[in-house]
Design a protein that fits this description.
The complex is a heterodimer of chains A (165) and B (112). Chain A is mainly α. Chain A is built from 6 helices and 2 strands, in the order αααααββα. Chain A has a two-stranded antiparallel sheet. Chain A is globular and about 50 Å long. Chain A starts with a helix and ends with a helix. In chain B, 25% of the residues lie in helices and 28% in strands. Chain B is of the alpha+beta class. Chain B is built from 3 helices and 5 strands. In chain B, strands 3-4-2-1-5 form a 5-stranded mixed β-sheet. At the A-B interface, helix 4 and helix 5 of A face helix 1, strand 3 and strand 4 of B.
């Protein structure tokens, strides 16, 4: 197994963990499945950034690859899946917006200090209120948006392609 | 189906234009002395007004014969202002890559 495949393998496992969390309990706070989603997206993007012979250490230190890379991966895959999944022109724009929101779920990505919300650690709002991610409504329900469902399908296809290459 | 690298590059560019209206321009990237190698990926620089300002981030894809992509490919997405920096030499392409021919948006998708 090379680094590229290993990152894809782990991205797939993160997505499986997200599915298991969603199946296990509707009462579980959404931050947990979103954490799995954010990690899956990050590892999938890193898998596609690793070129032949590249050193993955250069990619390990940052979480800010999703907003830039995930729409690129989605467009490439959707452009050749004409009959299987929708490839209307609005989908890529919607996926780009979702990718930016998913990237901001990582606590290390602060959007220039504007984003405190994240799916792992509590934060303090400007009015001094302390918020736990478990109590926060992120408003990011992929299963009830066409672009979200498409993104999940694209991620599964992208992972499968790397694992079978 | 034309299996040459030039044809694959053109098909890739057209298919990306078709589903992403925010692409301003697509330019082929060429690796001097290696471009004719079968193992050398087809490389496209896609100028996109909606992407983030993160510099040159090459994304690597494998071949996909079913859709006519008979070579590995690399897609680099940059903002228009980054493309200007590449053209002026302020922002350097990796691996000695050079700007090649530009592909125009197909007329059909432009009016869709």
């Amino acid at each position: 197994m090379d680094w590229k495949v290993a990152f894809a393998r782990q991205a797939g496992s993160d997505l499986d963990a997200r599915d298991a969390l969603l199946d296990a309990s509707e009462e579980l706070p959404e931050c947990h499945q979103l954490h799995c989603l954010q990690m899956a997206c990050e590892k999938l993007c890193k898998a596609y950034l690793i070129g032949h012979g590249s050193d993955p250490d250069a990619l390990q230190s940052s979480h800010a690859y999703v907003a830039k890379t995930l729409p690129n991966i989605a467009r490439h895959i959707l452009s050749r899946q004409a009959s299987q999944i929708p490839h209307d022109t609005w989908v890529i724009a919607a996926i780009r917006n979702l990718a930016r929101r998913i990237e901001l779920l990582a606590p290390a990505v602060r959007d220039g200090g504007r984003a405190e919300t994240n799916c792992e650690y509590p934060w303090e709002k400007p009015d001094g209120e302390i918020v736990a991610p478990a109590d926060f409504n992120f408003g990011l329900d992929l299963l009830h948006q066409k672009a979200g469902v498409t993104l999940l399908k694209v991620m599964r296809i992208a992972i499968a392609e790397l694992l079978t290459r | 189906m034309d299996r040459t690298k030039d044809a694959v590059a053109r098909r890739l560019a057209e298919s990306h234009y078709e589903i992403d209206q925010s692409i301003v321009e697509i330019v082929r990237l060429l690796a001097p002395d290696r471009e004719s190698d079968v193992s050398e990926p087809v490389k496209l620089l896609e100028v996109n007004r909606d992407t983030s300002l993160d510099g040159i981030v090459p994304v690597h894809f494998g071949p996909h014969a079913a859709s006519g992509t008979f070579f590995p490919s690399i897609i680099v997405e940059v903002r228009p202002e980054e493309y200007e920096q590449i053209q002026s030499g302020q922002l350097r392409l990796p691996h000695g890559w050079q700007l090649g021919p530009s592909y125009r948006r197909p007329a059909v998708s432009a009016t869709a």
